[in-house]
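[audit] Reproducing an earlier prediction to check determinism. Same input, same settings, fresh worker. If the tokens differ from the archived copy the diff job will pick it up downstream; this log only records the rerun itself.
[audit] input (147 residues):
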Amino acid sequence: MNWLKKLRHFDAIRVLAVMGKDADAQALQEIADKANWHLGFAANYESALEHLQREEYSVILCDRDWMSDPMGWCAAVQKLVAASPHGCVILTSTVKDDRLWQELTELGGYDVLIKPFQPEKVTRSIEFAWSHLKTRRQPTKPVGQCR
């Protein structure tokens, strides 16, 4: 095992995907296997909330069209963001525009990923989110007092 694989083994990116078991889920599993991520699946946002109570995930992928919340994907994203203060919520969708991205970020989400998944874009988005989290979690050094 090379040093990068060892590092990822001990500091693995943990991804929770809220989506059905379809071609997108299979593609995501293949991407996660290649990248050495821990990937969990939840069939709906209620199940995702249960997962988040038991384990911590770095990234939560939410399929915009799969959300079963009667109030829509916005309410589901808000609940997932609140349940995972140390995670990044990424919305997956067949459409991406500036308005959707803006709505998501205003709700506390991190990014929008287009389906069908392109491995390099999925990898980039998830690894950027993970890097963002690692930077955010590091304690800051106290700033000296100005005189």
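[audit] rerun output stored. Observation attached for the diff report: The beta strands are 14-18, 38-42, 59-63, 88-93, 111-114.
[audit] end
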